[in-house]
Amino acid sequence: MVDRVLVTLDGTVRDPDEPLLCADDIGALRGDGIFETVLVRDGKPCAIELHLARLRRSAEALDLPEPDLGQWRTAVETAAKEWGTEREGQLRMILTRGRDSIASTAPAASRKPSGQAASPTAYILVVPVPERVDKARAEGISVITLSRGISVDLAPNAPWLLMGAKTLSYATNMAALRFAARMDADDVIYTSTEHRVLEGPRSTVVIQRDKQLITPPARNGVLPGITQRALYAEAEKAGWDCRYESFFTADLITADSIWLLGSVTLAARVATLDGLRMSPPDCAPEIAEMVDRGVSRAWNIADWT
Ligand SMILES: *Cc1c(COP(=O)(O)O)cnc(C)c1O
Measured on CA atoms in the order 257, 288, 131, 191, is the torsion positive or negative? Predict the structure, then answer.
């Protein structure tokens, strides 16, 4: 059974133990690049069209050359097939600005305003899903709220913060998760300076009240979530009232349930929030099933707007 698969964007299956990056890759030097994390289930990449669409959007935000989505799709399918159907995999699509020395020595005419030569680094890596995932899906997670130290007004006025792009600069997100671990928590919900709920370091926050679902809008500086979108598509069909609205930390406590949604874990119910236990509502299995169905259905690239 393979436990890692590495495919470069040209479709070549590589030995994952052989070096791939050059020492001057800007992705490594500065975290300057973008990624997508995709669940591989039954040998297929879930909701791949939505991931491709968001990859394109993120590339645009970072002034990277427009990704060849057809080439990405083929390479992702190759990687998923190599991974096989035996178990779930966590597939990462990685796109960095490429090599620094090549960017700085390329003739000025071939450079973009951002100073790069047109040769990004692009590859796909599949590994087993993390161990925490099974437990998070089955039993839920403990979560603490942490301030992100920014206002929801910032995102629309500060495009250089790349709030709506999935960038490789995740050091602070990982630090937040380590901080949570020291507090015996599994995950984090970020809040804004005005105590509005934002997102998790790697997930979208959705709260449920009766037959209503609410998630913060992208304009508040959160990444538009693919798993959340998949849930909304199924929930709307099933007669739920699905909304994009700002809400506050206090609204978390009065919700019937809180969910962290992400492409690999899918749906994790918040079982403990800042030490307060939250018991599962009757609809908890229904929500998890809608997420499952939503990510498994066929999507069109134009569904991502
Ligand atoms: C990836 C990510 C999400 C959303 O996850 P999906 O995989 O799109 O469901 C939300 N917030 C952050 C910070 C993320 O990195």
Answer: negative
With a 6 Å cutoff on the Cβ, whether 36 touches ligand 1 is no
Residue with tokens 């299956």: 13
What is the pTM assigned to this prediction?
Answer: 0.94
Ligand 1 near 168 CB (within 6 A):
no
Q: Above pLDDT 70, what percent of the chain?
A: 95
CB under 8 Å to 237, separation ≥6 — which residues?
none
Pairing of strands 141-147, 187-191: parallel
For a substitution probing ligand 1, which of 38, 90, 146, 203 has the most ligand atoms within 8 Å of its CB?
A: 203
Question: Ligand 1: which atom is nearest the Cα of residue 230?
Answer: 9
- pLDDT tens-digit series, residues 158-183: 989 998 899 999 999 999 999 999 99
Of ligand 1's atoms, which has the minimum distance to the CA of residue 173? 13
The residue whose CB lies within 8 Å of the most ligand 1 atoms, and thus the one to mutate among 35, 51, 202, 265, is: 202
**Contact (Cβ atoms closer than 8 angstroms) between residue 77 and residue 70:** no
- Structural contact between residues 206 and 283, judged by C-beta atoms closer than 8 angstroms: no
Cα 129 to ligand 1 centre (Å): 16
Distance CA 200, CA 208 (A): 16
Q: Are 118 and 59 in contact (CB under 8 A)?
A: no
**Whole-number Å distance between alpha carbons of 136 and 161:** 30
Q: What domains are defined for the chain?
A: 5-101+117-129 (3.30.470.10), 132-296 (3.20.10.10)
Is pLDDT of 107 > 70?
Answer: no
Q: Which atom of ligand 1 is nearest to the CA of 170?
A: 15
